[in-house]
Amino acid sequence: MSRTSEARPCKNGRAERLNRSIVKGVLALLHDSGLPAHLWEEAMQYYLDCKNLTPHAGLNGDIPNAIWHGKPQDLS
Question: Which GO terms describe its biological process (predicted)?
Answer without folding.
Answer: DNA integration
